[in-house]
Fold:
Amino acid sequence: MSRCTAPRNGHRTASGRANCPACGSSYGGHRSYSYSTPSYPSYGGNGSGSSGGSGRSSSSSKKPRWSSAGSSVAYTSDEIRSLTPIRETIETRAAEQPDLRDVFLCHAWDDRKGAAKELHDLLEAEGVKVWFSEKDLGLGVPMMRAIDKGLANSRIGLVLVTPALLERLPKEGVADKELSALLAGNQLVPIVHNTSYVELRNISPLLASRTGLDTGEDSMSIVAAKIAELVKI
Structure:
């Protein structure tokens, strides 16, 4: 019995079918086969379809409504979604109390001369008015009273989430009291540094639910630039 040559030679032309020992003679050239090259999904270098190895999607090119027209700072959709209620709080408080500072910086005591100082300096370089304990907590002033005053006189709070803060939160120290006040409304932006939201969720699910910024995705200077745009009125 003659074997069809379609799998090897194809029957896309009349001569191809006629030359087939099976189809050309037995079926009068009426049988045809069509083969096409299979298509395969394409993947990026990290196998996730995202741009770059950090897992950030191409949506990072979006701009929030408060970003200036000439700004080169890019945001993810998640960042815009989480920061929009904060921006609304800023606008409301700025209209009601124009003399407030822009942000209150909450941090672990161990970070006061390291990551917290770095963030403070970058924010001030961007023109942000920051309440920072190393600068604003005077000698002889009761700490909690000064912190209460700082919170009341700032439009929003930033919490620098570091391994040091995660270690101190379960002990319910000063930082924990600051966070309790800031979590009461849309006044808090977590900034995760040298740790992750997964680790934060293990310690404080409520705080982890407030998605913010991450220095694992952006440099500290870019984070400061985003905060500066957020608070600018």
Remarks:
- Residues 59-231 form a domain with the Rossmann fold fold (CATH 3.40.50.10140).
